[in-house]
Amino acid sequence: MAENDKLQGGLNSVTIVGRTGQDPELKYFDSGSVKAKFSLAVNRGGRDNRETDWFNIEAWGRTAEVVGEYLKKGREVAVNGRLSVRQWKDDAGNERDMLSIVASDVKFLGSKRDNEMGSYAGGGSPERAPF
After folding, report:
1. Do residues 20 and 38 lie in contact, with contact meaning Cβ atoms separated by under 8 Å?
2. What is the pLDDT of residues 74-130, one digit of tens each?
3. Is 63 in contact with 55 (CB distance < 8 Å)?
4. Which of 1, 33, 84, 130 places its Cα 20 to 30 Å from the Cα of 50?
5. What φ, ψ does residue 113 adopt, rounded to 5°?
6. Rounded to an integer, what distance in angstroms lies between the CA atom of residue 104 and that of residue 59?
7. Which domains does the chain have, with CATH numbers?
8. Backbone angles phi and psi of 46, in degrees to 5
9. Is the Cβ–Cβ distance between 42 and 86 less than 8 Å?
10. Is the pTM of this model over 0.70?
11. In terms of Cα–Cα distance, which of 80, 18, 82, 24 is closest to 52?
12. How many CB atoms lie within 10 A of CB 92?
């Protein structure tokens, strides 16, 4: 079987590592579902020529609840998920696009000091949030 045959159905997977730009915003829906939104700063380039890319992250369900409870601004995380493009027309009738990452997994990273600074409640820090 050729390599191209294996991916016939397509593949939409992304993994990024960075620091959160703000505390997550939680939104609860009448249906009972919950969504967490936050931004992630990812540095690229060398020490002298560093640039920062910003990504919008969405998490849903139990992942959103854990992110909302434990994730704080500045915390280093690894996010696994898929790319999503939302399209709409603004009030002036202009077509708009917004790229985001829908997280399937958020792994808390960083030093022991990061963990002790309140980014995980309950005394101690998980390597990965319990979801």
Report:
1. yes
2. 999 999 999 999 998 999 999 999 999 999 999 999 765 555 544 332 233 344 444
3. no
4. 84
5. -60, -40
6. 7
7. 9-119 (2.40.50.140)
8. -85, -175
9. no
10. yes
11. 18
12. 6
